[in-house]
Design a protein that fits this description.
120 residues, mainly alpha, 2 domains, 7 helices, 0% strand
Amino acid sequence: MSDPQKEKLKKVKNAAPLLGIMHELKEEFHALFEQSQNLGKGTLELIDWLKKAEPYYKKSVETIKRWFGESVGYFEQRTTNGTVEGINNKLKLLKRCGFGFRNFIYFEMRALLAWHFPNN
């Protein structure tokens, strides 16, 4: 963050202490995933963070608890499911845009073309 942005953040935190606490928890969460070196340490740190964050982020904490095994898997392999989610998103978009395909073969050809020749 630039110096003016840091100053603005400091003013916001002073004006709204609850928002300041929530921002700090968000930064801790980010650092936890960036800095944890192994599965055991990362898992314990995540459990501690969940206890601290529960009063502020009820729904998010519940979601992380539901997907706890998958979340801590990141500490072991350092991989995410972002690629798979991106593919699913492209296929859903194609399905919405392709309403009226006469059969699955046309949909399949369009999906393969979109995958191999993106229009970016």
